[in-house]
Amino acid sequence: MVTWNDAWSPVGSDSVNAADVDDVHHGLPIWTVGWLLKDDAAGVTICAEYTDDDDYRSRSFIPRPLVVSIHRLARSRKLHEIPAVSDPGLTPAPTRDILGP
């Protein structure tokens, strides 16, 4: 999980005065979870999805100066599949081994 500060602009704020600027003078904290593909001086590349073709999707690049911290999360060896619809009549799918790294 990468914690980082994103640049942002408050909605509907076309103008600001000096007294109000302290309220919005900070990065927006963001937590991005996924597979960490690269971590170097330039920044980090993290992907939210892994496919069974050994590819990654939903890639984000976060420049190093914006990175606050990186936490490596433990993962279990089983993926618990849950039905997409909450219906008392549905039976959860069986667990299976994770295919990704």
Detailed description of the structure:
The structure is a single chain. The chain is mainly beta. The protein has one domain. The protein contains 1 helix and 8 strands; from the N terminus they run E-H-E-E-E-E-E-E-E. It has a 3-stranded antiparallel sheet with strand order 2-1-6, with no helix packed on it. Strands 3-4-5 form a 3-stranded antiparallel sheet, with no helix packed on it. Strands 7-8 form a two-stranded antiparallel sheet. 5% of the residues are buried. The C terminus is likely disordered.
SSE layout and pairings?
Layout: E1 2-6, H1 21-24, E2 28-32, E3 35-39, E4 43-50, E5 56-63, E6 67-70, E7 78-79, E8 96-97
Antiparallel strand pairs: 1-2, 1-6, 3-4, 4-5, 7-8
Please supply descriptive tags for the structure shown above.
101 residues; extended; mainly beta; disordered C terminus; 1 helix; 39% strand
Classify the beta-strand content into a percent band. 35-45%
Largest sheet: 3 strands, antiparallel
What Rg do the Cα atoms give? 19 Å
Average of the residue pLDDT scores: 80
Helix content bin: under 10%
Low-confidence stretches: 97-101
| Succession of helices and strands | EHEEEEEEE
Distance between the terminal alpha carbons, to the nearest Å?
Answer: 16 Å
